[in-house]
Amino acid sequence: QVQLVESGGGSVQAGGSLRLSCAASGYPVSLSCMAWFRQAPGKEREGVARIGDGIGGVRQTYNDSVRGRFTISRDNAANTLYLQMNSLKPEDTAMYYCAARKGGCPYYTDASAWTVRSLDYEYWGQGTQVTVSS
Q: From residue 71, how far is each of 2, 61, 74, 109 by CA, in Å?
């Protein structure tokens, strides 16, 4: 049984940093498409970043709203996913969820379609709250 447990959320001021972790059990993160999604009150859940093996090696994909500020990574030995968040903005405030699907990451004709495809992921963590104040 695959289980995902997030940690690392908290409250920071704008411009600050946080590092989220997602400890996985039951299946290797190295054989999975792993992603971070977030959901703010009254908004749809959206993909923030994802990582998976692709042609030529590990491939990371980012939502345009976080590219250059957030970095997704994984530690295969620890079976853990990370999200380093720098230069945080108030609009980053949300509940952040770790998600996983066995196998590779799906790709679409619309390169940004993955950000709204939460149903592609079989397994979800309980979420960790990130609050950024101005």
A: 24, 9, 10, 24
**Confidence category of residue 47, pLDDT binned at 50, 70, 90:** very high
d(CA 58, CA 54): 6
Q: What is the pLDDT of residues 57-67, one digit of tens each?
A: 899 999 999 99
> How far, in Å, CA of 38 to CA of 58, rounded?
22
Q: What is the mean pLDDT of residues 4-26?
A: 98
Average pLDDT over residues 65-82: 98
Cα 9 → chain centroid: 13
Q: For residues 1 and 94, what is the distance between their CA atoms, to the nearest angstrom?
A: 27
Q: What is the 3-state secondary structure (H, E, C) of 61-101?
A: EECCCCCCCEEEEEECCCCEEEEEECCCCHHHCEEEEEEEE
- Cβ neighbours for 55, distance < 8 A, ≥ 6 positions apart: none
